[in-house]
Amino acid sequence: MDIDLAPKLAKKVYGGDGGSYFAWCPSELPMLREGNIGAAKLALEKNGFALPNYSDSARVAYILQGSGVVGIVLPEKEEKVLPVKKGDAIALPFGVITWWHNKEDTEFVVLFLGDTKTAHKRGEFTNFYLTGTNGIFTGFSTEFVGRAWDLEESVVKTLVGKQSGQGIVKLGASNLPEPKNEHRDGMTLNCEEAPLDVDIKGGGRVVVLNTKNLPLVGEVGLGADLVRLDGSAMCSPGFSCDSALQVTYIVRGSGRAQVVGVDGKRVLETTVKAGNLFIVPRFFIVSKIADPEGLEWFSIITTPNPIFTHMAGSIGCWKGLSPKVLESSFNVDSDTEQLFRSKRTSDAIFFPPPK
């Protein structure tokens, strides 16, 4: 596969006093188009309000920073208004309407990752706004708006004329609905507080988002995980064995990554840092080593219940092969094979730094 896999930073698409919207472009990160994946970020300043909109793609939202409020309207359902904070993951099925608000001093930042197979453009999200200068009211004539909503022409002109913002606005006194904690049930999971699926002392921790702990991901068609790798620890080389793509956003820290593809060719060797996005092609093997300050990443996998095969460690696939097969495959004697097999008998997935 001759394609640029180097990690990239998002670029600003639009914004103003209320905040900004950023996205990764397929022309700079070709794997977005190749894998039919979209990626974007929303950053709201205090009193920033992302106007109601829907996307042409199913997505998973992850709160990278701060706390705020999200309004969600599933098709033919009533609005739910959720308080959300750093670490929350939210499944947003196809056709859902959302709005976002930040009433705190700290910037509120949301990551969006999703599948663009239904999108107008491969590898990009297109958002359709209900209000604003680029909203649906500005596209229809006053006659159509008046007939559709049974309004007089003067009221229609007021509705259209009052919309001065595009996508994101800054509110003064807010009369938005108050969030309800009970609305979080079944809608979101905090990956920083959820029970750990993997916990290796000195190595790292994983929380997996799937249909068991957040059933809505089944409608989205995506799985996700939050991985926190301790300082100088290593993540075992591994691959998705169910043909899924792995889309990784670096949340915190830095480290080194290597990806090996067809014919044993190393197709990527790079340093990754906070804000980077990179995509591992199907069946390619990836491994990461954290710098001393550690490395944290959030990933989506293009299946709701992903399955991974790890190459090293106590659950590594080598352990399943018989000694004679390994001796013949590596063309080594039994002593070398036994030495190879005797290592990593207790460590799984994450390996603490050498002592």
Mean pLDDT: 90
Count of discrete alpha- or pi-helical segments spanning 4 or more residues? 7
In whole angstroms, how far apart are the ends? 38 Å
Class derived from helix and strand content: mainly beta
Note the overall shape. Answer: elongated
**N to C succession of SSEs:** EEHEEEEEEEEEHHHEEEEHEEEEEEEHHE
Strand content: 35-45%
Largest sheet: 10 strands, antiparallel
Low-pLDDT regions? none
Work out the number of β strands: 23
Radius of gyration: 23 Å
Helix content: 10-25%
Written account of the structure:
The chain has 355 residues and is mainly beta. The chain is built from 7 helices and 23 strands. The strands form 3 sheets. Strands 14, 15, 16, 17, 18, 19, 20, 21, 22 and 23 form a 10-stranded antiparallel beta sheet that branches. Strands 1-2-3-10-5-8-13 form a 7-stranded antiparallel beta sheet. The longest helix is centred in the middle third of the chain and has 9 residues, at 153-161. The two termini are 38 Å apart.
